[in-house]
Design goal:
Distance between the termini: 41 Å
Number of strands: 6
Structural class: mainly beta
Number of domains: 1
Number of helices: 0
CATH superfamily: Protein of unknown function DUF3599
Radius of gyration: 16 Å
Shape: globular
Strand content: over 45%
Helix content: under 10%
CATH class: Mainly Beta
Largest sheet: 6 strands, antiparallel, barrel
CATH topology: Thrombin, subunit H
Length: 112
């Protein structure tokens, strides 16, 4: 019996694919499956009065130590919902983290 249940997530990594006719970069996202991630729900909040139907949802995705790629600018798909990675998450020092997870990425989705 597992004490902590993990799940598979999909990291969507941005890849530059040239420029449009106005010179703006064209970015496409390449999906990459990652097994063994721990997803912790975070806060939800309503947005301000200018966006009364808006909501912000946050999750923290703990990646296994075997995952060593940078996540800056990436998106993470959890259970069919796409979240944007906040900032540039850095891995924990191995000697300070005895468990199976080595990188915590705060992610958010904003609707409305």
């Amino acid at each position: 019996m597992e004490l902590i249940r993990t799940r598979a997530v999909t990291v969507r990594r941005p890849v530059a694919k040239g420029a449009d006719r106005f010179g703006n970069p064209v970015v496409e996202y390449e999906p990459e499956g990652v097994a063994g991630a721990l997803v912790a729900p975070g806060a939800t909040s309503d947005l301000d009065a200018a966006r009364p139907d808006g909501a912000r949802v946050a999750v923290t995705v703990h990646f296994p130590k075997s995952y060593a790629k940078p996540l800056k600018g990436c998106e993470v798909v959890v259970g069919g919902r796409t979240y944007r990675v906040v900032g540039d998450p850095q891995p924990y020092a191995d000697e300070n983290c005895p468990g199976p997870f080595g990188l915590a990425a705060e992610c958010e989705a904003v609707d409305g």
